[in-house]
Amino acid sequence: MVSRQQLQSVGRNCPGYAPIETMTNLEENEENVRCDTCIHWVNGRCDIDLFDEVLESLDQT
C-alpha cells in the first residue's frame, strides 16, 4: 500500500502532476500536492504510469 508521504513526495516531483479542477488556489499548497489530488490518479493508481518511475528516481537521490 502507498503511504501518504509517498503520495506527497511523488506528487511534488512528478512532471505529469495536474491538480483536479475542484481544488482552489488556497487548497493547492505543498501539503495538498500529492498523487491523489492529481487528475491522473484513477482507482488508486497513476493512469499515465509515472508513479513508480518518479518514486524510483527519488530513491536514487
Describe the structure.
A hairpin with a 2-residue loop joins strand 1 and strand 2. The chain contains 2 helices and 2 strands. Helix content is 31%, strand content 7%. 20% of the residues are buried. Helix 1 (4-13) packs across helix 2. It is globular, with a radius of gyration of 11 Å. The chain has helices spanning 4-13, 51-59, and strands at residues 41-42, 45-46. Strands 1-2 form a two-stranded antiparallel sheet. The chain has one domain. With 61 residues, the protein is mostly helical. It starts with a helix and ends with a helix.
List the defining traits of the structure above.
single chain; 61 residues; mainly alpha; two-stranded antiparallel sheet; 2 helices; 2 strands; globular
